[in-house]
Amino acid sequence: MPTITREQVRVPVDVSPEMRDTYIDNYMKATRGSGRLMLFACDQKVEHLNKDFYGEGIDIADVEPEHLFKIAKEGVIGVMAAQRGLIAQYAADYPDINYLVKMNSKTNLVKTDQEDPYSPQLYGLDTVLAMRDAGVNIVGLGYTIYLGSEYEATMLAEAGDLIAQAHAEGLLVVLWIYPRGKAVGAEKDPDLIAGAAGVALCLGADYVKVNPPKPEGEDERTPAEALKIASMACGRTGLVCAGGSTVDAQTFLTQLYDQIHVGGACGNATGRNIHQRSLDEAVRLTKAISSITLADYTVDQAMEVFNGQQDFKL
User: Fold this and answer.
1) Class (C level, CATH) for 6-306
2) Where are the domains of the chain?
3) Is 90 exceeded by the pLDDT of residue 1?
């Protein structure tokens, strides 16, 4: 099981000296003392509206937003990522969850062929700090950049400034970076994914969430093998992969294992694959995912956790 000590946490120099211990506290919380990130992504109520929470193949429990918080409380995660307002409505009842506030979001109604994507920041850091000062367990921030959009310069500037401010306050930052827009031919091109990872490093992010690369044509690498280049490209910024649409547990856990052990990923960022299930199944899947991400279980061992044949706790 990978573990790190407080002394082994590499603190960026833009973290103010008086907030150094706070940054280390937040890093240890978010990674559960492992250095790896198990991010439970719960920002889709804006990003994908209600279609990710109600419909065919989705457990009826998912239509109620509190389902997300119940999963985070009863399961094993590192951080729960969600918009500030969603966290504000439920955090008093779920004070022990490690929260990562998603600072920008947009819906998927306006398609790329109509306008290149732009996801503006929805609120200032001061509103997040006020919640933290009021006792909400906020350990970090998240921000999405659509690399290749004609609005990328604005998003890059917003993200860069946000990271500097967040680090000064001892908060972690995870960037979601997706190549997308009329200038982008293949959003999952391995070179583009590696480029996006490198951008996150240059902006100073602690972690970057990317889509798994999709090699095509004469590129005979597996997605995990292609991911290795992206993991190398982002240096000291940890790379995690988006989970994508729901698949069976065996397939998902196998992909995750390969992303970490072949692709060099530093964890996972999973939403729909978890929350579209019943509470019991979703909780078991968080434990199975965390057993791989945080404790280096094999896929077979993780499947035993998912199937209820053994429990997993940290």
Assistant:
1) alpha beta
2) 6-306
3) no
